[in-house]
Amino acid sequence: MELSSEIKEITHLDKERPAETQDGRGVVFDLLCETEDGSRFIVEMQKRRQKYFAERIVFYLSREIASQGVKCGEIWDYSLLPVYGVFFMDFHLDEHEPLSLRTIEFVVRETGQVLTDKVKAYTLELPSYVNMPQENCKTRIDYWLYNLANMETMKTDLKFKDKQPAFNVMERLSELSKLSREDSDKYFYELDYYRTIKNADDYEYERREKKGRDEGLKQGLKQGLKQGKLSVAKNMKQEGLDAAFIAKVTGLNAEEISKL
């Protein structure tokens, strides 16, 4: 799938696309992404096999295509922005040949020509990667799906970290997910304690730093004011003005004036 522009918005899990009518049916996606040019793609993660999953794919895509229509009476030429679906599946699509990557689109049967590129779906079927030899993984999609499919049974670290740096983060998350409930609670307790102490230390440092800046500014202003008074007093003295008058105007004492 090639996107013509960058993703500008991602809607997570609990965001529901509203129905067009009061009794209509809405749709809930795991992720709904929209690019800067208005193109949309759906990302769905499905762990357990479901009946009519192929029809569900069609329904999701159709709902997003139909949502681009205009209100009744408005002029519209049926020009559509692309809608894509990406479906991660922990099973193969029923009644179809098992594939690791399946591309679904509108195709004219007689010619094999794509009718429109405005709607397309991809199924990424993890069972194809279970126990697959690592040397068979050739693409970035292979690297990701191999790790996703085998993460729970891996006895060592994740594979292909030299090819995809994001796997280093993914590995830390996977190690955390393997902890027992007791160890997990202990980990999060220690993490919370660490964050609390660090937050308090950072706040104290920030307060001291601010106090130091305030005191430094205060001293600087005080010193600058004193230098200003001395400069004025020196000029007045050079003009032959009386020391008592200079002291009254500047606030300096007689000793300070005599030293000028």
How would you sum up this structure, described in words?
With 260 residues, the chain is an alpha/beta fold. Helices cover 42% and strands 16% of the residues. The strands form 2 sheets. A 6-stranded mixed β-sheet has the order 1-4-5-6-8-7, with helices on one face. Strand 4 and strand 5 form a beta hairpin. Helix 4 packs antiparallel against helix 5. The longest helix has 58 residues. About 4% of the residues have low confidence.
β-strand percent reads: 15-25%
Termini distance? 81 Å
Output the strand order for the largest sheet.
Answer: 1-4-5-6-8-7
DSSP helix fraction: 40-55%
Give unreliable regions as ranges.
19-28
Class by SSE composition: alpha/beta
Tell me the number of strands: 8
Q: What oligomeric state do the depicted chains represent?
A: single chain
Shape: elongated
Radius of gyration: 35 Å
Question: In this structure, how is the largest beta sheet organized?
Answer: 6 strands, mixed
- What is the tally of helical segments? 6
Helix/strand order: EEEEEHEEEHHHHH
Overall pLDDT confidence:
77
